[in-house]
Amino acid sequence: MKSTTETLSPTRVKLTIQVPFEEFKASLDAAYKTIGSQITIPGFRKGKVPAAIVDQRVGRSAVLDEAINSALPNWYGQALEETKIQPLSQPEIDLAKFVDGEDIEVTAEIDVRPEITLPDVSKIEVTVEDSVVTDEDIDEQLAALRERFATFNEVDRAAADGDFVTIDLSASKDGEKIEAAQAEGMPYQIGKATMLEGLDEAVTGLKAGESKTFTTQLVGGELAGEDVEVDVKVTDVKEQELPELDDEFAQTASEFDTVEELRADVAERVTRGKRIEQAGEARDAVLEQILDQVDAPLPDSAVGDEVAARREQIQQQLSYSGLTFEQYLESEKQTIDEFDADLDKRVRDSLIAQFVLDAVASAEEIAVDDNELTQHIMRRAQQSGQDPQAYIQHAMEHNHVPELMGEVVRGKALASLVEAAKVVDKSGNVIELAKLQADGSYLDDATPDEAEEKPAKKAATKKTAAKKTAKAAVKKAEAKSTATPE
Fold this sequence. Notes:
The longest helix has 35 residues, at 259-293. This protein has helices spanning 21-36, 51-58, 60-83, 135-148, 199-203, 247-253, 259-293, 300-320, 325-332, 336-363, 370-384, 388-397, 401-420, 448-463, 465-480, and strands spanning 2-9, 12-19, 92-97, 104-111, 125-128, 151-154, 164-173, 176-189, 211-217, 227-241, 422-425. The protein folds into four domains: 2-111, 2-Layer Sandwich (Alpha-Beta Plaits); 151-241, Chitinase A, domain 3 (Roll), CATH 3.10.50; 250-445, Trigger factor, C-terminal domain (Trigger factor, domain 2), CATH 1.10.3120; 449-486. The protein contains 15 helices and eleven strands. Helix 4 packs across helix 7 and helix 10 crosses helix 13 (401-420). The protein is α+β, with helices and mostly antiparallel strands. Strand 7 (164-173) and strand 8 form a beta hairpin. The protein is extended, with a radius of gyration of 33 Å. Strands 6, 7, 8, 9 and 10 form a five-stranded antiparallel sheet that branches. It has a four-stranded antiparallel sheet with strand order 1-2-4-3.
């Protein structure tokens, strides 16, 4: 078999496959056996009918058709491997020459990736936000930690901002209850505005057992966006009591003995988080500049298929949320033409980015080891809220592992591009992202002396672990006597 290619356009090639008839005979023999097993001829067992008899009964042309249809996929796959073509679409196959006893010629027109010419990434410079950790940032994290250890006391007074209440909700339209909008025993914190518009105002000032009716709009279901009447009843009111931010709290809530140590650890974690955010901003900015400088044509079929797939995904998500496409456009303040233009641009940018990163990965021969793939799968499972083992099983059953490997490879390719560019913050400091680790630390964060101190610190921590665990258990036992919201 011989394969040749002809470039029809920057994104389309013509693949010509020539097969000597001698190589076709194996497929022909298999076709005779297949058809022979499907017909009944007196005196012959199924599958043992001679070729001449098969020709008499069904015709030689039927056998040739069976053989060529069986052989074509293998020829096409082999030709792609020989010519190293990466198709972006299903081929348009034509049987250019097929005469019994003569060499066979098949042509296939295929959409392919365009040639990518990368700009000089070392000349790209992007500016990102300063990675500044303020006292407010640290206080916010400590406040969240205190809330995790808060207790809740039932109070005999009107509900106020910040209180935790348990409520019953009943929505109706024109006097008729909406079955899908009835709920009992729902926990809610006043002031969070996480449920219905107007709910905070309605429950503020109500005591346990009191109710109020207000007008609002549902966010989902058949009546989404329409005015409905909602009756809310408060069944209990609880006041949140936060623990004091002192050494005792530090020992209960962490591995540290003092609040100063706890605060220093929080500051370090916030710093690392800011660095990761800064790195993400740099990746987006560098990739955006590269895409602006890459002029690559895209095959209409690839763009059209991706646009259709994303539109279907959006409509499915809207359907799950009880929204129509028209309601979505209204909420986004977009016309249908603006939506289509925006989706088309996002798809084109996404495809070009994929081609750019694949080109980098190929040029730099980027590979993925088992540990990198495992970590990526664990992150994806965590993001989707699935059990990692179930996620891996699903990926293997549906052949998603190559796709996941591709994501890791492209991530490493993007990191390579960003590290080659110049990244500075708004204060003019150069950001050395090549030294940034996955946890937000830098390779040279710890000095040799500090590195030696860490094992000793861990050992000291282990010595006091039993004491702190006991204190935490006592606190937990004490908290059980106080009602907490579910």
